[in-house]
Amino acid sequence: MISTDKAREFCPIPKELDHKRMPDHIAVIMDGNGRWAKAKGLPRTIGHTAGVESLKTTLHLCSNWGIGALTVYAFSTENWSRPCEEVNFLMTLFESVLQRELTNLKLEEVKINFLGDLDPLPTALKELIIESIESTASNKGIHFNVCTNYGGRRELVRVAQKLAERSVRGELDPLLIDENVFASELFTASEVDPDLLIRTSGEKRISNFLLWQLAYAEIHVTDVLWPDFDAVALTQALLDYQSRRRRFGGV
Fold first, then answer.
1. Which amino acids are annotated catalytic?
2. Which pTM value belongs to this model?
């Protein structure tokens, strides 16, 4: 685990990476906190806390290396089914970390956004989320998107409902609905689609994450558990990405 001070040190792009071929947008499924803790004989909560340090390091590295956006899967719509104690811990952790880190996010020009259905979240956390979004809205640095109470299928249903409502009101001709119109109602409407999806812990599925947006993303799966994800692991993911020839359905 990297300390806060270490995570914020400037780290130049590794020489083995082509700085001209870096992805514009990286998405990450941060998996393995619980297994990391179990392997060390620790409570799952310690794994989540360690995972926060990896997230801070990854955000800082992406910012240093010129990556325009980082979108992470922090809490899915399915995560509510976890034990109540763990869910409550995660909500408290989200709030405490955001409160502690908001000043630094502002100083580093990070523009933060939260994607998902935020209504069920605790009131204090929602208020802090609104404050963080509003206070960093004009920042010019990396876009940091935190998917919280997010589900890909639910997002697509939400878009369909919004477009149907507009059509019923006579504001939108259904025949004019194309991919661009549909994408304009997504949570990520202001972002380019991810170029690279990283999933830690070796699992080979996208778990209801950014189902529309990941249509042409390159996928990198690593056996590294999220609390152990560091500059070396990120470099390997980027080397894998740069080794691909992106054809987008062509030849």
1. 31, 79
2. 0.93
